[in-house]
Amino acid sequence: MSLINGLPAHVLIVHFVVVLVPLTALALAVCAIWPSAAQRMGIVLPLLALVTLVSVPLATQAGEWLEAHVDSNALVRRHADLGDGLLPWAGGLFLLAVLVWWAARRATTSGSETSRGIRPSAAPVRIAMAVLSLVIAAGASVDVYRIGDSGAKAAWHDGYSKTASGGDGDDH
């Protein structure tokens, strides 16, 4: 991937990642904690996680192209290094989304769930999935923030003036 409408593809594709990772993380956490939410969300949860998972290597690949076309410096290298670490988090979101979806589907099809939707024998598994989902969701969201922050610093560290240029009519 190189350019989209004259812009580096990375600067466009990365917005999918910035939106989808936290959205998937939030959906996973909610569905892992509240089985009824997972039942209502159904197949949408793992599909959302799959789209998120696919978007990460697309952004990374486009970022590698961009990295080869800009001046290399410590900020760019740090951003690239951090970006390489997001795929395992996205993979974790996807795997847990599939497990949470599968557990919710199994609970509704088994017919032996309690009034709250949880079989007593499944409670420890549900708790473990919820805790792991919260950890992965938090880790993925923090990682996206760190990557985005480093990318913004790499792109804008010397690209603007802290004082107005005076030519834009915005001096108050």
Automatic annotation (TrEMBL):
Stored InterPro entries: DUF2231_TM
Species of origin: Streptomyces griseorubiginosus
Membrane-traversing stretches: 12-34, 41-60, 86-104, 125-142
Keyword terms, alphabetized: Membrane, Transmembrane, Transmembrane helix
Name this protein carries in UniProt: DUF2231 domain-containing protein
Residue ranges occupied by any DUF2231 domain in the UniProt entry: 6-160
The organism's place on the tree of life at top rank: Bacteria
